[in-house]
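Section 3.1: Structural characterization of target chains.
Under the original work plan, the team committed to producing a structural model for every single-chain target entering the pipeline before any wet-lab resources were allocated. The record below documents one such target. The sequence was received from the expression subgroup and is listed exactly as submitted; it comprises 170 residues.
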Amino acid sequence: METQTRTSGANAATLGLGSVLVGSLPVALMTEDAPDRYTVEAVFSRRPEREEVTAILGEETRDRLTKSGYPTVEVTVSDRRLEIANTNLEELRDGLASVLANRLAEISAVVRTTRETAAARFADAAASEHERATAVTALAASVAFRTTESTQAHPHTVMNLVADDGRIHA
C-alpha cells in the first residue's frame, strides 16, 4: 500500500493520474457511431494544489503537448479530474498518457522545490532575526546606569596606582 505524506502542510506526493472515468466516455464507443475524438476524464492521484493547476493550464503544458504531437489536445482541471479534450483512448494508450504523466510529475517537482526553497529562506530569516534580537538584548543588558561614585564604590572595582618606580600600589 502506498502512503502519501504531507510536509509543512503541503502534499508531498507527486501528482499523477489514476484511472479513466469510464462513465464519462461516450456511450457509442466501439460502435459504428463512435466519435473519432472526445473528452476523456482521468482521476488525479490527489487533489492538485493551486500552483499545480496553474501550471497544468499554462502555456508550457500546451507547448509540451504540441511538441509531443498532440496539438489539438486540450486539458482542463475539474476538482480531482483532468479533462482531456480532443483525444481518444487509443491516443492516450499509445503515448499521450505518458506525456501527461511526465508533465504532472515535472510540475509537482517544481512546486515542491519552490516551496522547499521558500521554507528554507523563511527559516534562515527567522534564525537571523533570532540572532539579531538576542544580540540586541545582550547589548541592552550591558548598559548600566551608574553614577561615577557608584562605579568607584562598586566592590568589583579595584583602583591601582602606579608609583614612579613602576610598582603597583592599591
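DSSP finds four helices and eight strands in the chain.
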